[in-house]
Design a protein that fits this description.
about 0% strand; mainly alpha; about 625 residues
Length: about 625
């Protein structure tokens, strides 16, 4: 007969059994989140690239190779480009496996969104345990589960997941929340373990910044967490952890400087939209409240929004909006006296939005992707509310009533959000569906009209393109890119004077943008004004003598002007500067085959194009057929 186990031994055995089940339970939750996200976003896998993706993916030569030298170049800060090397590297990896098949890029976006949602779960679990000391031990798991599911399904995240050029959001999200979770976990450890956690947290923070520089707010989030967590011992925390704080603040300061430099060089910083300090302040308030609205009330999401500040400045609407904003700020500040959750959630939301509040004006006033990180606080509060309802008991109701009610309400909200997410995925199907939807919802949006005009330009529907581009510059007269596009469209519509006027205005607004001058040279070429076009291209060549495209464009102009020797010279210079670009070889072959009548030389240059290290495989096949046709006609 076996001896009877002592009561303490039974408790220990039960504890071991519980610990053994915990990893399995967490694995199940992660798997459920992953399945949930895949079901929600599987209808986006057939979506195409949009014209918002062209510069970052479709037309970006930087992602065409994964050599060490190419990776090194991605991390070099260059003038006029966004500094997001992790995003560019991820595109290069995608291109290595998928080339220009958008499905592969969508799979990667969804994968990183799954990882972000999983990290949101673990972060909420840690955060709930640290900021809610009075809660039951199992409450943190429920808050994390409810909150992470709501985060995963919220339709405001569609832009960040389905728009391929927004890869920076899901990359930043994964590493941002990884760093925050590691930090919270490390704060509860001692000695060497704490040091390892903090090093990993700083590493995640660095990768998040290299994914998207707006992650510089990480240091502010840490400070807000520490104020909420240990408001009585905050000074002691500063004294004991000055090294970690110093490193994180130094990293933030460095990348704030880089971000400002990049934005200035790329023209990302705009003029203040208000004509006075009060109106500029009001714009910040409006953006903050509209960002809350995107989470709570919006059902029709869009790729572009418009925000109009009520005039006059001292109107009842502006007073109301300012009062609401200040009330939320003061209420959240004083809430620290009785609850840490409201204080932390509000200030997390505010700090995460700081880069987008137009304190320093940026080109896009409001966007769904701007609340991607900030929406974490909304998921946290909703998770707590559902958990409170789940655990609530009242003598007039059965024990399981409120548990069932909380589950039913949660499922209802998840279904509503899921429907909107799945519907919004299809709006991002292609450029036309995206901008047609945006123009319909916000007809006074400069961005929506400008990019709808580009869509019609690509479709060859120049009259419709002109209609939207004219509306775009009417709404924002200093939109030099839309004026440049209007110049192209007017040129194709044979409205020469209008075309020249728009090109001239665009160059006046952005004198350093050589693309406008190249487009003007193309206009002169079409008008047979070869002298003016040649003068313009030669001026640009003096500024940038190693730009292969300028030699290519001048070669095309000489070809149309029947100046074949000069055309050959320019095309040869083009292939010398860019031997991996097939255009120069093709034009040399075409010139000798159709204009000069030298089939041997034509075959020679077509063959060089076939052997060039170009990535344009379909173009190589075309040149192979050219060579075969020339050989067959010998």
């Amino acid at each position: 007969m076996e001896p009877k186990a002592k009561e303490g031994d039974q408790f220990a055995h039960a504890t071991v059994k519980f610990i053994d089940r915990e990893p399995l339970r967490l694995t199940g939750v992660c798997f459920l989140i992953a399945v949930f996200v895949v079901i929600l976003y599987c209808n986006s896998l057939g979506n195409q690239f949009t014209n918002w993706d062209d510069s970052m993916i479709y037309g970006n030569p930087q992602i065409r190779s994964l050599g060490w030298d190419d990776i090194y170049e991605m991390f070099i800060l260059k003038k006029g480009t966004t500094y997001q090397p992790i995003r560019v590297l991820s595109y290069a990896v995608d291109y290595h496996f998928w080339k220009l098949n958008p499905t592969g890029y969508h799979i990667t976006n969804i994968l990183f969104y799954i990882l972000t949602c999983i990290m949101v779960f673990f972060t909420l679990r840690q955060l709930s345990a640290c900021l809610r000391e009075r809660a039951s031990p199992d409450s943190g798991g429920r808050v994390a589960f409810f909150g992470s599911l709501l985060f995963a399904v919220h339709p405001v995240h569609v832009e960040a997941v389905t728009w391929l050029a927004a890869r920076k959001e899901v990359l930043q999200g994964f590493f941002f929340f990884s760093g925050f979770c590691l930090y919270i976990k490390g704060r509860e450890e001692q000695g060497r373990k704490r040091f390892i956690y903090f090093v990993l947290a700083l590493s995640s923070f660095l990768i998040a910044i290299l994914s998207k520089p707006s992650a510089v707010v990480f240091s502010g989030v840490i400070l807000i967490y520490e104020i909420a967590r240990r408001k009585e011992n905050f000074k002691r925390f500063i004294r004991d952890h000055w090294l970690f704080l110093s490193l994180s603040l130094i990293m933030s300061a460095i990348f704030v400087f880089i971000l400002m430099k990049v934005m200035v060089d790329a023209g990302g910083i705009k003029e203040y939209r208000g004509d006075s300090l009060p109106s500029n302040f009001l714009i910040c308030v409006y953006i903050f409240l509209h960002s809350i609205k995107l989470l709570l009330l919006t059902i029709n999401y869009s790729a572009s929004y418009t925000i109009s500040v009520g005039l006059p400045i001292f109107s009842w609407k502006n007073f109301l909006f300012t009062f609401i904003g200040l009330f939320l700020f003061v209420f959240s500040l004083f809430s620290l006296r009785w609850t840490k959750v409201i204080f932390f959630s509000f200030f997390f939301f505010l700090i995460a939005l700081l880069p987008y509040l137009n304190i320093i004006p940026i080109s896009t006033v409001l966007a769904d992707r701007y609340v991607f990180i900030a929406s974490f606080s909304y998921a946290f509060l909703l998770g707590i509310l559902f958990d409170r309802l789940y655990a609530f008991k009242h003598k007039r109701f059965s024990e399981g009533f409120f548990k069932l009610l909380s589950v039913v309400l949660l499922v209802f909200l998840l279904c509503c959000y899921s429907y909107m997410t799945i519907h919004q995925n299809k709006i991002w199907e292609n450029s036309y569906t995206l901008w047609a939807d945006a123009v319909e919802k916000y007809p006074e949006s400069n961005m929506a009209n400008a990019l709808m005009g580009v869509v019609y330009m690509d479709l060859g529907m120049d009259e419709k393109a002109a209609e939207h581009l004219e509306k775009a510059v009417q709404l924002l007269p200093h939109d030099y890119m839309s004026r440049n596009n209007l110049g192209i469209v007017y040129g194709r519509l044979n409205e020469h004077e209008k075309a020249l006027q728009e090109f001239s205005t665009a160059m006046g607004l952005s004198p350093d943008d050589d693309t406008i001058k190249v487009n003007l040279s193309v206009f002169y070429q079409r008008q047979k004004e070869f002298g003016k076009g040649e003068e313009l291209l030669k001026y640009l060549q003096k500024k940038n003598p190693k730009n292969a495209n300028l030699h290519y464009r001048l070669g095309l102009m000489y070809k149309d002007a029947d100046r074949y020797e000069e055309a050959v010279s320019e095309f040869l210079r083009c292939v010398e500067l860019a031997p991996d670009i097939i255009n120069g070889y093709e034009e040399l072959g075409n010139l000798y085959a159709t204009r000069i009548g030298d089939s041997e030389r034509a075959k020679y240059y077509y063959s060089l194009g076939v052997m060039s290290p170009t990535k344009a495989k379909s173009r190589v096949e075309d040149l192979r057929w050219m060579v075969q046709d020339l050989e067959a006609n010998r």
